[in-house]
Specification:
alpha/beta; Rossmann fold; 3 domains; 4-stranded parallel sheet; 4-stranded antiparallel sheet; 14 helices; RNA-binding
Length: 450
RNA sequence: GGUGGAAUGGCCGAGAGGCGAGGCAAGGGACUGCAAAUCCCUCUACACGGGUUCAAAUCCCGUUUCCACCUCCA
């Protein structure tokens, strides 16, 4: 049985689902720019949970939202609208563009698609009716500025996920000036904001023309698509507060139930010692990895070498190491034939189920790789078993490179030089070929390249 | 100030009371005309101070340092 660390109870708990089914929600991207590999680490977490849960025999339904409206950078400045100004194209085009690129990046990291990707902009009615219900039942109110706010103090267990207490939250910290005084309490948050001068991405509601707050979208979409009971809610550690705390308050106030059974959070990725962020200037995109001639799955491999709930420091050195191990393992798998037979391994299975102990599973694979007692076909079957969860595409056979005519000429001349034992010329040509992107190997049967 | 974590060799990183994970880098060797690749070998650590124990990197107390969150964040 799969076991995971649960944030609210701070314990490793059994993941049982109900009636053999697991309902999962993973907070998705705000589509105003490319996802960097740090963002993708979180989506990899949900992918690992899905894969491990399926291995444990559960059926999984995964819903991941696309935030294409309502995510404020500062008050009244929507991230997508500001990017739309930068790129000088329609905000919905911005959202569409980056949503497509998000899906492409997921595919490059072998992250299985969710069952449903609801868009915030297409869920406005769900949010409006959720907000109406919250106002009706006294969980929300209309502030003096016309915005609708959630009343944090009306929700008794606020803070259960993050450990923050309402009375300990620093009042006034990064307080938005325009909201000053409009809210009853500093920790209240906006469910719906009045448009004022804003003309794009606004909707008509009972409270006037406006747009939704960020937190309400996940409550509205998860309740609509997964129902009143969600087994697992996954996201990055930074969403623990305030996003998930607020979401829990909203959802529970709507359903009268503990809507989400387990909250699961992935830790942050650091790059060369610092949190990956635009302001630190250390953002790495999947494309950057590809541009350095590394397999994008090297990033996946590097992530798997660390437990999901420890901060990890990614470096180019670790990506290069991952890349070469990946190549070596693919040749181990290829050497084992072409069978798709899978042999399960208790030790690896235990590692996966024990709170996604992927480092241990990789260690076990390294031991299998070295074990002379295991024949190549069995090695292949064991690696294929692991790959169901690891998703490293270990059966991939390297594509044969197509030689340019220039490369063919160089190879031919080198072969002739070698027959003449003209090693100076042979070495010169090797240098040219390497500059040309071909690695040359000389063996007993002559030269080969890759 | 509140909250959640972390500290292991040149570097990255598992391990959670008892035979020194593994990887990368480096050095040596085999192979090679020379390389590359591959294979073999070598190097060996648990932040600090106390305590518990036959036995502590691992448990307890304290200290120091670092990271993250506290209303933009994966």
């Amino acid at each position: 049985m799969l076991r995971l660390y649960e944030t609210r109870s701070r314990e490793v708990v059994d993941i049982t689902g109900s009636a053999g089914q697991l309902k999962m929600y993973c907070c998705g991207p705000t589509v105003y720019r490319d996802a960097h590999v740090g963002n993708l680490r979180t989506f990899l977490l949900s992918d690992l949970i899905v894969r491990a849960a399926r291995l444990s025999g559960l059926g999984v339904t995964l819903v991941q939202n696309i935030t294409d409206v309502g995510h404020m950078a500062t008050d009244l400045e929507d991230k997508i609208l500001s990017q739309s100004k930068v790129e000088k194209i329609d905000p919905f085009e911005i959202a569409k563009k980056y949503e497509e690129r998000f899906h492409a990046d997921l595919a490059r990291l072998n992250i299985l698609p969710a069952d449903l990707y609801p868009r915030a902009s297409e869920s406005i009615e769900l949010m409006i009716s959720a907000i109406e219900k919250l106002v009706e039942n006294g969980s929300a109110y209309i502030g003096t500025d016309g915005n609708v706010y959630f009343d944090a103090q009306s929700f008794p267990t606020y803070g259960a996920i993050s450990g923050n207490r309402l009375d300990a939250l620093k009042p006034g910290y990064r307080f938005e000036a325009s909201e000053d005084g409009a809210k009853r309490f500093h920790a209240d948050w906006a469910l719906w904001k009045i448009a004022h001068d804003r003309t794009q991405m606004v909707w008509q509601t009972p409270w006037g023309l406006g747009f939704p707050g960020w937190h309400i979208e996940c409550s509205a979409m998860s309740l609509a698509h997964l129902g009143q009971s969600v087994d697992l809610h996954v996201g990055g550690i930074d969403l623990r507060f305030p996003h998930h705390e607020n979401e829990r308050a909203q959802s529970n106030a709507l359903t009268g139930l503990e809507t989400v059974t387990h909250w699961i959070h992935g830790e942050h990725l650091l790059f060369e010692g610092r949190k990956m962020s635009k302001s630190a200037g250390n953002v790495v995109l999947v494309q950057d990895i590809i541009d350095r001639d590394l397999d994008p799955l090297s990033a996946r491999f590097a992530f798997l070498e660390n437990r999901y709930r420890s901060q990890m420091d990614l470096t180019w050195a670790s990506l290069k190491a991952a890349h070469s191990t990946l190549k070596r393992w693919r040749s181990v798998v290829a050497a084992g034939g072409t069978s798709s037979a899978v042999e399960s391994d208790a030790e690896m299975e235990q590692a996966f189920f024990n709170d996604l102990d992927t480092p241990k599973a990789l260690q076990r694979l390294r031991a299998i790789e070295k074990d002379a007692q295991i024949n190549p076909a069995r090695k292949r079957a064991l690696f294929l078993f692991a790959d169901q969860v690891l998703g490293l595409d270990l059966t991939r056979v390297p594509e044969a490179k197509v030689l340019t005519s220039e490369q063919e000429v160089l190879l031919q001349s080198r072969q002739e030089a070698r027959l003449r034992k003209d090693f100076a010329e042979s070495d010169r040509l090797r240098g040219l070929l390497e500059a040309n992107g071909l690695a040359i190997h000389d063996g007993p049967e002559g030269q080969s390249w890759s």
